[in-house]
Amino acid sequence: MWQVLSLFTLLPLCQEILFRFFPRLEMPMSRPHGTGRTRGGDTNWSMNELQELKDFLDESYMSEVLHSLNIIPWTFDLQRNVITSNLSYIDRKYMGGPLLHKQSFEELTTNILPDFREEILEIYRKVKNGIASRANFQMQIRIGEKRRPVWVEMNLVTKEHDEEGKPMLAVGAVTIIQERKEAERAMLEAHRKAEQANMVKTNFLANMTHEFRTPLNSVLGFSTIMAHSDTIEERMQCLGAVQTSGRQLLQIIDDVIELSKLESNEVELHRDLLDINDLLKKVVEEVKPMRKPNVEMTHHHTEANIILHGDEQKISLVLRQILDNACKYTEHGHIDVYCHKSSEHAVITVKDTGIGMSQDCARHIFDRFYKGNSFVPGTGLGMSVVKGLVTLWNGTIKVDSEPHVGTSVTFTIPLHASFYQNRTLHELLHGRPLFAL
Hints:
Blueprint: H1 2-21, E1 35-38, E2 41-44, H2 47-56, H3 59-69, E3 71-77, E4 82-86, E5 100-104, H4 105-111, H5 114-128, E6 134-143, E7 148-161, E8 167-176, H6 178-227, H7 232-263, E9 272-275, H8 276-287, E10 295-299, E11 307-310, H9 312-329, E12 333-341, E13 345-352, H10 359-363, H11 382-392, E14 397-402, E15 406-414, H12 425-428
Parallel strand pairs: 10-12
Antiparallel strand pairs: 1-2, 3-4, 3-8, 4-5, 6-7, 7-8, 9-11, 12-13, 13-15, 14-15
C-alpha cells in the first residue's frame, strides 16, 4: 500500500526533477516505437535513453533517495479533509508508530507551532478554493512521542479536480530539515561571534589608545611645567602629578598583560603556605595612601590565624584591585576588610561606604571596559582580571551594592592546594569563554 502511495504522490515531483535535468524533455512513456515529444517539438529517443529514464524512476532507486532525504510522501483528500502519510522513509528517531499514518487537517494544525499556524491556514484556504495549485513552505511542527518541535519543508500540488474546477486531491512530500536548520543556526552563531570578536578588538584598541594617551599627556605636560618652575613647591607638585600618572600608566599595562595571560591560559599559580591575615594587613597598608582624606581604611584581624596554600602575588593583586576601586568611589566614611574561615575556604570581604551602584551596574561589573562612572579614571579591565584570577584558583566572587549606601565585594580562596592543582582556566570554565564578547 505505501509503495503505491509513494509512487503516486511523487510522480508530479519526479516530473519536475526530470524537466530540471532535461529541460527539453516531457514524459515519453506514452509514445510508441521509441519516439518522444519535447516542449519545442518532436524528436526521437533511443531505447537506451528510454531505459535510462525508466531506471531513473525505478522504485528501489527512489526509495534510496527518499531515505537519504528523510522525506514523507503524503496525499490530502480535500473533500474529507484527511491526510495520509507514508512514514517508511524517515529516520524512526523522529516518529514511530504505523508506517501508514492518517490524520485530519485539524489534527495536523494543532501540532503546528503557533508562529506558523496562520500562514498554513491561509495556504489551505487558497488550495481548497482553487486559487493556488502549488505550495512550498517551511514550518516547525511537533511530531513523535516526545512532541518536540522539528523543522520541516512541505511541498504540495493539486492532482484531481471536480466539475467546478476545485481540487479534490493534493499530493506532495514533507522533508525533515532539522539538521539543516541546526547547521544554519550554528553558522549564524559563529558569524555573530566573529563579528562580536572583531568589535571587541576595535573597542579594545580605541579604549587603550585613550587610556594610554591620558597619563602620557599628563606626564609630558607636568614635566614641561616643572622644567620652567621657579619654586621648589611648584616643582614638587608637578613631580607628584607625574608620579601619579606614571602609576596609572603602569597599572594599565599590568592589567592588559594580566588579561592577555588569563585568556591564553598562561597564568601559573604558585602554591605557597601563607597566613592570610598577614597578607591582608600588608596590602591594606600599601593601599592606604590612595584613599581620600576623609576615609578610614581598616583591616579587621581575626582572632585565629588562617593558614592556606595559595599564590601570594595573585591574591594580593585581587585584593589591591578591589581596594583601589573602593578608594576611587568612596569620598567619606570607611573601607573595611574582613576575613573568616569556612569549612573549605577563606572568605574575604571588602566593604565601603562609597557611592554604590545599581543592580544593573553590578551585573556588568566583571565585563571588559565596563565603568559605572565614566568620569572616574581607569580602563574598566581591573574587575575582569579579578574575576579571571578568582575563577582560576577555583574560588567564587560576588558583588552586593546599593546606590548612596556602599558596596561589598566577597571572594573566596581554597584552603588547600588540591583545589586548583594542575587546573587551567579553560578546564575550570568547561570550555566556556571567561568574558562575554
